[in-house]
Amino acid sequence: MKNYNEAVCQLYSEKENLIILGLTGRTGAGCSTVASILKKEFCDLEYEYNDERETSLKEKKEFEIIKSYIETDKRWEPFEVIEGSCVILSYIFEYQKDNKKGEEVFVEYLKFLQSDKNKDSFKIDNFRELENEIHGLNYIFEEIAKHPLSPIKDWETVSKEDIDIYYELYINKLAEYKNRVKKIFLKYSCYEEKKRKLQDDPPIKYHFYTYLLQKIANNIRASGNPYVSELHQDKILDFAKRIRIIIELIKKHKGGEKARICIDAIRNANESNYLKDVYRSYFLMSISVDEKMRQGRLGALDEEEQKSLDYVEYESKFDNGKIFYHQNIANCFEMADIHLVNMDEKNGRRLSLTRQLVKYITLMIHPGLVVPSDIERCMQLAYNAKYNSGCLSRQVGAVVTGPDFAIKSVGWNDVPNKQLECIYRDVHGYCKGNQKDCFSEFEYENETFKKSLIYIGRQLESTNLHGRKFSYCFKDIYNGLKNDKNQVFTRALHAEENAFLQISKYGGQGVKGGFLFCTASPCELCSKKAFQLGIKDIYYIDPYPGIAQKHILSFGDGIGNPRIHLFSGAIGEAYVRLYRSMLAQKDELELVSGINCKDEAREVISSSSKQPLTKDLLYHRMEVSLEFLNRENIESLRKVDIEVLGGEYNSLDRTLTWTGSSYDKSELIENENGYSFIDTKDQVSPYHYQIVLNNTVSVGNHISYGVKSYVKDESHLMHAYFAQMIKYPTKKLILKVIIPKEAPLLDNIRYVRYADMKMEYDFLDQFHHIEEETTDDNRVIYQLEIDNPNLFYTYSLEWDFINVKS
């Protein structure tokens, strides 16, 4: 079969030519660690199998498959890293206003933040010293201002020389400049004042470098300007578009070569969604770590700075359009395609993290090389299940399995059976008053609740929803009326709770020792249920902000407590993209190798059973003899010289028919070509043996050999003839019968020709003479030579035995 490797490579070329990874995770989780791994050459990776960890045979084979593929044909390419902090600083460095230099505008903004004009003003320690150090960076501002990114919409009209300048500046130099700025800013802290003074709280201490970059980034997302915080709705994707411009710069500089790009890091889900819409090859990868371990990595920050950092990164409530421009790492986690866990390992190595990275990058290049893990499969089911939820706030899915990962039940946050999900209940429908089957008795009879919905309905009369129905959350309205935050008034069951109830609802199965998979870690109530049911392991993606893990699931000496695991693996669309093969594995291997296993197996069988076609072989000479050493011991010799006219041969199968008492063996003689011989295992005639050639013999080559067979006729059962069938064209046939001179055994020796190969149509041949010769060693030889014997005839020397037993 023809090899189609080049065509198969074309199918995967686009996947291999461009890979873009967006990293997301909380500070200290390890985004920068992942970026540093991705920048390495393959030979520098700590990519090896950790035998100390208990692993299954499947994991070991997966490692071998991934390693073999990624290290072949130079498929691993180091990544170019676009640092989010560098992108933020590029706005600061290039921004000029009113003929003022960039560093002057930057210092003015810092002064504004500390002035009474800023409603959220704060104080920077040792600001005078900081101001002087910023002016000392003027050379960076000047260089960036000469080559700003703001005017560039694409790179098609930019010269190659300028592209090289931009590449060197924004990919190499800017990272170095960022480190200089960071080294300076790390020496300073800042404090929020006015915002907290109104509540009589002490000022909150922030790490200046982190706080400033987060604030500038929020400004850029809100307005496209690093110093303007007011929301401009047409600018909410400005930051993402700059990342795209830098990606295109890298691609242009590569000039069509493989481009691997990593963005460290994505902090707002809108940026990730934009890049996913623009680039098919983009994946968002979340980096997680145990919270205690993460806090340990933030040792440079004091406790107050860590708390303020957590508040900024994990702000739970976004008012006045902040969802468009504020950091929202929780939402990024929910949108992530791949989740990695970055746990500390011995000697500071990152074997597990590196293995995870290499695996998923390999699957991006070649989807379907391996199959999902049991954990991925179960979490994907939970992930799919969450989209059945009609909750307006959050969709959560859960799966309960046995200890063998067999699915027991599936659940999602949903209202009780036969009640209508919140997504289908809207204020307008309520106010019409003719949809009572959609609402509860309380909602229609409680006067305060009724007034609130009617009031909302009146406000909606002057609002254009552009075809949307204004669904409402009962819990939000009721808690608003009570000025409370009680979660008990939610209409829906939690996903885990629903999954547990499904088991008892439909017959009941034991789940003790089983596993719980949920897209968000269980709350306090669901954690208690999981504990009570004997769930052994809980896997989750998004962390729950409560105290369930430390208070409910971590109790006493820990014996019997459910174990909590951060999920690691591909999820959602990425699960399908990474594990769905472009070609069936069998078909792809057949196309790449040109080997069809079924055909090859058939060839093995046919080569051992199928004889060459008549036209494929030409016998230049066939000499066969039968020698009686005495009446009981007989030897047969066959010498041939064959020319191959068609086909290829690694062996020849031959058959010997013996009518006497027994067969001893056969062997090769005069074996100048180094052939091998496989003797028969048959117990009765006909006996089959095989001549194995030392290489493949094809058209134009010759096969020459001699085979001697040893047979016996103790019981004098042998038929009185020695015959040769002509199956292939033959130029010369020589038949010999040899007997000892002192002990004549045969009489009336004659030549008979048969017009078939079953020896049924015989006639005496008068045109060929049997020669008789006595040799010096007292043997009598009867010989018949025939030129060009007829095809499919049988030629025989026949006789009568002397003194044959009856």
Task: Outline the structure in words.
The chain has 806 residues and is of the alpha+beta class. The protein folds into four domains: 1-77 and 258-299 and 307-368 and 580-595, 3-Layer(aba) Sandwich (Rossmann fold); 85-257, no CATH class; 398-566, Cytidine Deaminase, domain 2; 613-801, Sandwich (Immunoglobulin-like), CATH 2.60.40.3140. Helices cover 36% and strands 22% of the residues. The chain has 27 helices and 28 strands. A seven-stranded mixed sheet has the order 18-21-16-15-23-27-26, with no helix packed on it. β12 (537-542), α24 (548-552) and β13 (563-566) form a beta-alpha-beta unit.
Question: Which keywords apply here?
Answer:
806 residues; 36% helix; 7-stranded mixed β-sheet; Rossmann fold; single chain; 4 domains; Cytidine Deaminase, domain 2; alpha+beta; 6-stranded mixed β-sheet; elongated
* Biggest sheet strand line-up: 18-21-16-15-23-27-26
At CATH level 2, the architecture of the largest domain is 3-Layer(aba) Sandwich
In CATH, what is the class of the largest domain? Alpha Beta
- Estimate the strand proportion: 15-25%
Mean pLDDT: 89
- Class by SSE composition: alpha+beta
Question: Distance between termini?
Answer: 61 Å
Shape: elongated
| Helix count from the secondary structure assignment | 27
Supply the number of structural domains: 4
Helix content: 25-40%
Biggest sheet character: 7 strands, mixed
Ranges where pLDDT stays below 50 over 5 or more residues in a row are none
Radius of gyration: 43 Å
Number of strands: 28
**The CATH topology of the largest domain:** Rossmann fold
